[in-house]
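User: Please fill in residues for this 397-position structure.
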C-alpha cells in the first residue's frame, strides 16, 4: 500500500469506528429513553398482579428495537448482534420481566435465523420483525430440564409430516407466542442424535396450553406448559435436518447466555443506582449512611462485580462476533453474572435496611427477579460442569 492510500485507509477506518461509536451511543440513548418512559413505570404493577403486558412488547417492535439486529432482507436494520445485548441490558434496568420476554423471543427468532431455510426465514422472521408474531423456545419438559438428552417428546415421521406427542414446561411466552420452536425426538433410540427441532404455529391442531405459572420473580413474563396430542405438522416445519436439534439447542443457548448475562448487568445497575441514591439520603447516627465504611464497602463490591461482568461480556461477545468458539466463555460469563447479580441485589436490600424488605421499595423485586439467572438457560451447576470439563481437557500445563 502506498503512503497516501495507507493514510486514506486509516482515516476511512477511523471514520467507520467513529460512526459505529455514534450509532452505538445513539442506540443506547434511544432504548434508555424508551425504557424509562414506556417500561420502568409499569414494572412494579406487572410484578404485583403477575400480568404480562403485550402493549409494551408491541411498542418495542413498532419502534424497531426487537428486529434491529436481523437482516434488512427480512425487515430488520442489519445491526450487529451485539445490539441485542445493549437492548437487553437497558430493558432489564427498567424491567427484568420485559427483558425476559424479549430474550425468549430472541431464542426462537435466532434459532430460525441461524438454522432455518430461506422459505422459513422469509415467512417467520419477516412476520416476527414486523411485530406480527411473538416467538417462544420449547426445550424443557416437566421431568427433563438440564438433561436435554432425556427429552420425552416424540415426533414420528409419518410421511409428508410429523406427529408430535409430549409436553413442555416452563416455556416463556407459552400462551402469548404465535410461533414456538419445539424440540422433540425423531429417533428416540439415538439419544441426543435423535433430537430434532420444529417450527410450530400457535393455531396448530393438537397443541394445548396449560395454566400459567405463579412465579416468585419475573412475574411480568408469561410462563407455562404446552401439551402436544397427536399434533400433526407438515415436513416443511422441520428446522434444519433431523437429528440436529441438540446441536441447534446448544448453539442457541450459548448466545442466550450472553443475553441473560446482559440482563444481569441491567439488574445490577438498577440495584446499584437505587443503593447509591439511598446511601446518600438515609441518615443514621447523624450522618448519611453512605459516610460509613461498611456501606461504602458494599457499594465498592457492587461496582467491582459490575465492572468485571462488563469486561467478561465484552470478551465473550467479541468472540461470538468473530465466530470463534465461545461456549466456555459464555458459561463462565453466565455463572459469574448470575452469582454477581444475586449478591448485588441482596446487598442492595441490606443497604435499604427494613425498607429493603418492603415491596414499597424496588429492591426486593430485583432480588426475586435475579434468581431466575441461576436457573434459566443452564443452571449454575450445569455451567460449572461445562467449565470444569474444559478445564480438565486442558491438562496439567
Ligand atoms: C422463569 C423461567 C423461564 C423459563 N423459560 C424457559 C423457556 O422459555 N424455554 C425452555 O425450554 N425452558 C425454560 N425454562 C426452564 C429452565 O431452562 C430449566 O428450569 C432449567 O434448564 C433447569 O431445568 P430443571 O428446572 O428441570 O431442573 P433440573 O434439571 O431438574 O435440575 C434440578 C437441580 O439439579 C441440578 N443438577 C441437575 N443435573 C446436575 C448435575 N449433573 N450435576 C449437578 N447438579 C445437577 C440443577 O443445577 C438444579 O439445581 C424456564 C425456567 C424458568 C424458571
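Assistant: Residues filled in for all 397 positions:
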Amino acid at each position: 500500500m502506498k503512503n497516501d492510500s495507507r493514510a486514506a485507509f486509516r482515516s476511512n477506518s477511523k471514520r467507520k469506528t467513529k460512526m459505529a461509536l455514534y450509532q452505538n451511543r445513539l442506540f443506547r440513548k434511544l432504548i434508555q429513553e424508551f425504557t424509562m418512559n414506556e417500561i420502568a413505570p409499569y414494572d412494579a404493577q406487572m410484578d404485583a398482579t403477575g400480568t404480562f403486558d403485550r402493549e409494551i412488547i408491541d411498542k418495542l417492535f413498532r419502534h424497531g428495537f426487537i428486529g434491529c439486529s436481523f437482516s434488512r432482507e427480512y425487515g430488520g436494520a442489519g445491526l450487529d448482534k451485539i445490539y441485542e445485548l445493549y437492548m437487553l441490558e437497558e430493558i432489564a434496568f427498567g424491567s427484568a420481566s420485559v427483558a425476559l420476554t424479549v430474550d425468549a423471543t430472541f431464542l426462537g427468532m435466532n434459532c430460525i435465523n441461524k438454522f432455518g431455510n430461506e422459505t422459513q426465514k422469509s415467512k417467520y422472521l419477516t412476520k416476527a420483525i414486523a411485530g406480527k408474531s411473538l416467538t417462544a423456545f420449547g426445550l424443557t419438559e416437566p421431568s427433563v430440564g438440564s438433561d436435554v438428552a432425556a427429552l420425552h417428546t416424540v415426533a414420528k415421521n409419518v410421511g409428508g409430516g410429523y406427529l408430535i406427542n409430549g409436553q413442555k414446561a416452563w416455556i416463556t411466552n407459552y400462551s402469548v407466542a404465535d410461533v414456538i420452536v419445539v424440540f422433540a425426538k425423531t429417533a428416540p433410540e439415538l439419544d441426543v442424535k435423535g433430537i430434532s427441532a420444529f417450527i410450530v404455529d400457535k393455531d396448530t391442531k393438537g397443541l394445548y396450553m396449560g395454566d400459567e405459572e405463579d412465579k416468585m420473580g419475573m412475574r411480568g413474563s408469561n410462563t407455562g406448559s404446552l401439551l402436544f396430542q397427536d399434533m400433526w405438522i407438515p415436513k416443511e416445519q422441520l428446522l434444519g435436518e433431523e437429528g440436529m436439534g441438540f446441536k441447534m439447542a446448544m448453539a442457541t443457548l450459548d448466545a442466550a447466555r450472553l443475553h441473560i448475562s446482559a440482563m444481569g448487568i441491567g439488574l445490577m445497575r438498577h440495584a446499584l443506582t437505587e443503593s447509591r441514591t439511598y446511601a446518600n439520603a438515609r441518615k443514621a447516627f447523624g450522618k448519611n449512611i453512605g459516610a460509613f465504611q461498611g456501606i461504602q464497602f458494599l457499594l465498592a463490591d457492587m461496582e467491582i462485580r459490575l465492572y468485571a461482568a462488563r469486561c467478561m461480556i465484552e470478551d465473550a461477545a467479541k468472540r461470538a462476533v468473530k465466530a470463534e468458539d465461545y461456549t466456555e466463555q459464555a458459561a463462565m460469563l453466565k455463572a459469574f453474572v448470575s452469582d454477581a447479580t444475586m449478591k448485588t441485589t441482596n446487598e442492595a436490600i441490606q443497604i435499604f435496611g427494613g425498607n429493603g424488605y418492603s415491596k414499597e421499595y424496588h429492591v426486593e423485586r430485583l432480588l426475586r427477579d435475579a434468581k431466575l439467572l441461576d436457573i434459566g438457560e443452564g443452571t449454575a451447576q450445569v455451567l460449572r460442569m461445562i467449565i470444569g470439563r474444559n478445564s480438565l481437557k486442558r491438562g496439567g500445563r
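For context: The mean pLDDT is 95.
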